[in-house]
Amino acid sequence: MTLLHHGRAAPRLAALLVGLFAAALALATPVSAANLFEDLGGKEGIVRIVNDGVDRVLADSRIKGRFVDTDIKRLKSQLAEQFCHISGGPCVYAGRSMEQAHAGLTLRNAEFNALAEDFQAAMEQQNIPFTVQNRLIALLAPMQRTVVGQ
Ligand code: HEM
User: Fold this and answer.
1) Across residues 33-59, what is the average pLDDT?
2) Which N-terminal stretch is annotated as signal sequence (predicted)?
C-alpha cells in the first residue's frame, strides 16, 4: 500500500517541485533587465558602446570642453561598470554617486541631451536595434535630475 501510494505521489511531487523551482527562478531573475544586458552584447558589447560613446563625446564640440581634466580611461571603465549594473549584468558600480561625480559642473539640459545623442549614435554604430537603444536611454533619462545643475 505504502509502495503503491509512493509510486503515484512521487511523480506528482516532483512535478510540483519543478514548477515551484521554475516559479522561484522567474521571480528571482529581473527578466527584462537581464535581457537588456544580453541585448547590449554583454560586458564586451557594453565596453564597445562606452568606448565609442566617450570617443564621440570627446569629439563633440558641444561638450568636449567638460572633459579636459578627466581621466578618460577611468571614466570609460566606470561607465562600463555602471551600464552593466543598471542593465542587469553581473557588475557592481563602485564609483561616485551621480550628484558627487557632477558636483560643481552645473551642467545644462542641452549638454545632457548631447551626451545621450552621442551614446545613441555609438549604439547605432554597434548595430544595437533601436528598441534596445531606447531601453538603455530609458534607464539613463531619470539620471538627468541628478546630473544636471549640480
Ligand atoms: C546619464 C548621463 C550620465 C551618466 C550616466 C554619467 C556617468 C558618469 C560616471 C559613472 C562618472 C564617473 C564617476 C566616478 O569616476 O566616480 C562620470 C563622471 C563625469 N561626468 Fe558624467 N554622466 C552622465 C552625464 C554627463 C554629462 C551630460 C556630462 C557633461 C557634458 C558629464 C561629465 C562628466 C565629467 C566631466 C566627469 C568626470 C568628473 C571628474 O573627473 O571629477 N556627465 N559620469
Assistant:
1) 94
2) 1-33
**DSSP for residue 30:** -
Residue pLDDT, tens place only, 118-142: 999 999 999 999 999 999 999 999 9
- For ligand 1, whether the C-beta of 136 sits within 6 Å is no
Q: Which of 75, 96, 105, 143 to mutate to test the pocket of ligand 1 (most atoms within 8 A of CB)?
A: 75
pLDDT at 100: 97
Of 61, 98, 137, the residue with max ligand 1 atoms within 8 A of its CB, to mutate for a pocket test, comes to 98
CB 46 within 8 A of CB 40: yes
Looking at residue 1, its pLDDT comes to 47
In the three-class reduction of DSSP (H, G, I as helix; E, B as strand; rest coil), residue 29 is classed as coil
Q: Percentage of residues in the chain with pLDDT exceeding 70? A: 79
> Going from the N-terminus, what domains does the chain have, and what CATH number goes with each?
31-147 (1.10.490.10)
The answer to whether 56 and 121 are in contact (CB under 8 A) is yes
102 is in an annotated binding site: yes
**Does residue 131 or residue 7 have the better pLDDT?**
131
- Which residues on neighbouring strands pair with residue 148, listed in sequence order? 107
